[in-house]
Give the backbone structure.
Amino acid sequence: MLKGKVALVTGSTSGIGLGIARRLAAAGADVVLNGFGDAAEIEKLRSGLAREFGVRAAHAAADIGNAAEAAAMVCAAEMQFGRLDILVNNAGIQFVSPVESFPVERWDAVIAINLSGAFYAIRAALPGMKARGYGRIINISSAHGLVASKEKAAYVAAKHGLLGLTKVVALENAQADITCNAICPGWVLTPLVQKQIDARAAKGRISVEQAKRDLVGEKQPNQRFATVEEIAEAVMYLCGPGSRAVTGIALPVDGGWTAQ
Ligand code: NAD
């Protein structure tokens, strides 16, 4: 379905981003991975994707929270593969603390990576998408883009902000074949969430399994983690031919979390 298309997925060396990159490659897209990690492991991921799905794959180590690095990454992707059709802004970090003791540098980092990074990448990708008359921009927000939780001020602010950015980009490009949408996952069991589970287990002196059950039980009515594959299928829908008229939306994949 995506043969001939080129996709860049930020934060795709782990978790949801990696699942999205795999799904896009499985559909035939050439992919640019981005994110941090062990260089040998990343090379294994990159070459594995290329081999398994018969696509071209690259990795960019850019820090998405840095405007110049983000723009250079988009430019390099276009130079290497000749185009950029699909941009998935997925890179994200979390930090948990009450507002009054929230470290300012952690606030700045969460806003830079989870919100400004998407702006930097979109800003750099739009001229090429406009020139080619096609683009699919998908921002990975969160249930926390729609509702709040305590002790997540920066994350909740960034994810709400990302939905605002999504709508503006959708409006500005509504007459081109460029859509911009957001996906709002509920809990997905990735390293980002595992850290919160471990902290919860340590704080409550409970087992990690109990902490997992409590975490999901508290927010997610279907009582299970969403899977990386379920998020990737939502991305596929937003890249597919059936969603050309869908733009500016926030699509929850959250087991009913935000229906409450
Ligand atoms: P993860 O920690 O498994 O992966 C994060 C990825 O981002 C990694 O590849 C990491 O290297 C990369 N990254 C971190 N800082 C970066 C930077 N400065 N520049 C470039 N890349 C950077 O996390 P995840 O759970 O897969 O989260 C992916 C996205 O999904 C995030 O935006 C997160 O907020 C969102 N999300 C996750 C959940 C969940 O339950 N896991 C729920 C809702 C939304």
